[in-house]
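Incident log, support desk, overnight shift.

02:14 A customer reports that sequence design results differ from what the structure should imply. Their input is reproduced verbatim below. On-call engineer (initials T.W.) acknowledged and began investigating.
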């Protein structure tokens, strides 16, 4: 079973609390999501491979560690995943980017794909899939399955908040994919929303409700 990593750093927990507040305005919500994305990215990239390379400092020649291999690809599950994507790109500006467009059928809660674009060499890259909420996990499971069909194997998933039901579903469908999250909340309600959660992350990011 892959890891479930709850990033319980005090800064993450403080910023999550601000995100949860219903009175937090759109601009502040976006900023907080980007800041939490920085901290999640720091944790999720701990095991990226390094190589020793020769460099010149202003004083002498030496050797230093730099990232090795293919650059990371961050795949955003549209639309809400773009909030985390922007924050991670600020920390990893050379990362490649993919998008998977999925909307959730309100009757079945099942994802319907409407867009898919990732680097052609996705199979050769470490991939971080981002979506703010891991609720039913139907969208995340579908996205990971789509990426695996294209050969991706080095996969991780990052979210702000997860539900126990979503974690269980992810582990059952993709036991090889670690989950990084800021919190695991109590449960889902009858409409598939996380409780206590923070509401609809996409609507709060883009001011559409």
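02:41 Re-run completed on a clean worker. Output:
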């Amino acid at each position: 079973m892959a890891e479930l990593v709850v990033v319980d750093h005090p800064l993450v927990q403080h910023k999550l609390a601000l995100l949860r507040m219903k009175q937090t305005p759109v601009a502040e919500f976006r900023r907080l999501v980007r800041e939490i994305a920085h901290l999640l990215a720091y944790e999720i990239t701990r095991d990226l491979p390094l190589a020793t390379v020769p460099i010149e400092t202003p004083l002498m020649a030496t050797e230093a560690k730099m990232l090795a291999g293919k650059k990371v690809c961050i795949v955003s599950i549209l639309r809400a995943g773009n909030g985390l994507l922007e924050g991670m790109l600020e920390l990893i500006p050379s990362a490649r980017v993919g998008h998977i467009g999925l909307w959730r059928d309100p009757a079945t809660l099942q994802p319907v794909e409407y867009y898919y674009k990732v680097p052609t060499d996705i199979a050769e890259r470490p991939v971080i899939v981002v979506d703010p909420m891991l609720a039913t996990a139907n969208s995340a499971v579908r996205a990971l399955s789509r990426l695996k069909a294209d050969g991706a194997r080095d996969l991780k998933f990052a979210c702000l908040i997860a539900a126990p039901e979503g974690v269980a579903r992810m582990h059952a469908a993709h036991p090889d994919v670690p989950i990084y999250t800021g919190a695991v909340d109590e449960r889902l309600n009858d409409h598939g929303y996380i409780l206590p959660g923070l509401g609809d992350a996409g609507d709060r990011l883009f001011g559409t409700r």
